[in-house]
Amino acid sequence: MNAVVAQPAAVPRQFAARSALRRNAGKAASAAPARARRSVAVRAAGNNEDKTVAIASIAAFLAAAPLAAVADDFAPPAQEAPASALAQFQAQAQSAMSGDSLTAPDTKVVDPNALPEGNTWRYSEFIRAVMGGKVERVRFAKDGTSLQLTAVDGRRAQVTLPNDPELVDILAKNGVDISVSEGDQQGNYASLFGNLLFPLLAFGGLFFLFRRAQGGEGGGGFGGMGGGGPMDFGKSKSKFQEIPETGVTFVDVAGVDGAKLELQEVVDFLKNPDKYTQLGAKIPKGCLLVGPPGTGKTLLAKAVAGEAGVPFFSCAASEFVELFVGVGASRVRDLFEKAKSKAPCIVFIDEIDAVGRQRGSGMGGGNDEREQTINQLLTEMDGFEGNTGVIVLAATNRPDVLDSALLRPGRFDRQVTVDLPDVAGRIRILKVHARGKTIGKDVDFDKVARRTPGFSGAALQNLLNEAAILAARRDLTEISKEEIADALERIVAGAAKEGAVMSEKKKRLVAYHEAGHAIVGALMPEYDPVTKISIVPRGAAGGLTFFAPSEERLESGLYSRTYLENQMAVAMGGRVAEELIFGAENVTTGASGDFQQVSRTARMMIEQMGFSEKIGQIALKTGGGQTFLGNDAGRGADYSQATADIVDSEVQALVEVAYRRAKDLVQENIQCLHDVAEVLLDKENIDGDEFEQIMLKAKAKLYLKDDNSAVDVPFKTA
Ligand SMILES: Nc1ncnc2c1ncn2[C@@H]1O[C@H](COP(=O)(O)OP(=O)(O)OP(=O)(O)O)[C@@H](O)[C@H]1O
Ligand SMILES: [Zn+2]
């Protein structure tokens, strides 16, 4: 495909970062007082600075992965991925979730011609078969956690997928035909996004096709790369979907009360248009639903139609834009013709930014087509005389890129924000999706909601779905706490590596390493509580320690200097533990991801946040900005060599302090380290409660202030 279709593909993730920033910018002021109070309550590290700053990239990468985890890869460093801009971005986004993303080497020698027996293949077997040209096509499950393959010999098999960002790349390179299963479940994409988004971004065309598949019902087949190109040319009338009765009401949409309130007016109007027109009130024609992916914009639009009892027409704007100039415009015409004949009704246009970008600012090619399409849309909307009863709802992730002509009075002059849900909202969304599922009595949605900051409605729905699948696989009659915890873990960290055996020696190493992270994290004042430690290898990670950033922290996106310093110390905890137990000469490469994180944080603090007295309060690098494609995440700082030297030494100083603090803490609490590691070796997983018990039993010494007086800060667990 080409650059034009790659464009919409870049939107969702980019938005994730940007929207967080925008939200944060807005909330910074109001969040500050609460934050300050909290700081007083927990601050005890003898750090007087109360400098709280909005840190763009941290907020962004935390937004990309709601549960922070320290993950460690104990694979040889030779596996390092090339540092393309995309790879760097991937690495950054991944690191918030699971450390570095190195793929563990698969060294077993196997006859390359032999296909595995049976109809469930291990992932490594599958990859080998793909590389050997033995796989003809694959069909991803909608949630992206598994796929069905057809081998060249016609055999079919099922594969459970880890979180492998390279998968799509590998498949494409080996000429495997890719499709996405068209289940009957709607909107179950969260984990497909999680698992596959990055590679899909690299293959914009694929993503485009994928979006088409999402269109579902109306869109028709997704039979491989060819589906929906020029062949669809004549079928312009099938490009929108008409639902006479959506059957969705506001009850089905939870946690977005503000948006519902605003849309209630639209419902009202559709129900009693006369009431409004008699008074001479101007009827809204268009309303823009703005918010991150999966927050229920489509669902809300359907609910408006459902509440008002009017038909629902929908289409994705990206589908308007085809290869031929003029097709989009004619599709818009078709759509509105049909809608007007069924008025009153709702027309819903998803991803309006795909056609509605500021005109004349696009990236080469395809502009004419887009401009014509958007012009047609404007013409249609202007053409509604007085009261045709057609109300257009449009959804976007990127209101900032929209053509201002779209936002003028009489067009999309209202904006309704559909934001990510807060705890209370998440509880209610979970309850909505628990309907029709058998949920065990031990499941506490309040707890689940607290562990899922940053999850959208779609992600929560997916979570419950995964849990249900797990319960079925385990032959249970109801979904228990366990399945939800496992599903959550799987979504956040990728599926546990099947059959990966660790040598006793390595296991000990990983156990101590993770225990080191956990202990430093738990004993550090003003740091996030430990919710889980695991040495079950999953994805690329040999071990993981999960921390739950507070709601407030995620919401505000504000990170104090203390917090960042603590975070660096926590990251150092792994290596420090290895060193103390196994000796400096035996430390491993398992900490490479930790070190990357530490250096990144330190550099950012110095270069962008004005945390260095020697550098002063200037941003040497303005960082991030709006670029995604071609964002050179690392290099290109524009300052002199002399300044660079100061930066380097300042970074080094920060890292050294972090190391020393971690080492002091672990040394002080070496018994805790042994105890936690022992339990880990025994059980492989420790949850927050158990961790707390172990720490209490081992009489963890509290954090020491500079003057060596212990500070009365209880360690924190979830
Ligand atoms: N607030 C919510 N309450 C209940 N369910 C929700 C909510 N938000 C999302 N969901 C679930 O997630 C699914 C997908 O959401 P939907 O397609 O409406 O999101 P969207 O905001 O339109 O996403 P996108 O921007 O990716 O199109 C819905 O069908 C619904 O099952
Ligand atoms: Zn580590």
Automatic annotation (TrEMBL):
It comes from the Eukaryota. Its cofactor is Zn(2+). It holds the Pfam family AAA_lid_3. GO terms for cellular component: chloroplast thylakoid membrane. It is found in: Membrane; Plastid, Chloroplast. Its main location: membrane. GO terms for biological process: photosynthesis, light reaction; proteolysis; PSII associated light-harvesting complex II catabolic process. GO terms for molecular function: ATP binding; ATP hydrolysis activity; ATP-dependent peptidase activity; metal ion binding; metalloendopeptidase activity; mRNA binding. Residues 283-422 form the AAA+ ATPase domain. Keywords: ATP-binding, Chloroplast, Hydrolase, Membrane, Metal-binding, Metalloprotease, Nucleotide-binding, Plastid, Protease, Transit peptide, Transmembrane, Transmembrane helix, Zinc. In the C-terminal section; belongs to the peptidase M41 family. NCBIfam families: FtsH_fam. This is AAA+ ATPase domain-containing protein. The lineage of its organism: Eukaryota, Viridiplantae, Chlorophyta, Mamiellophyceae, Mamiellales.
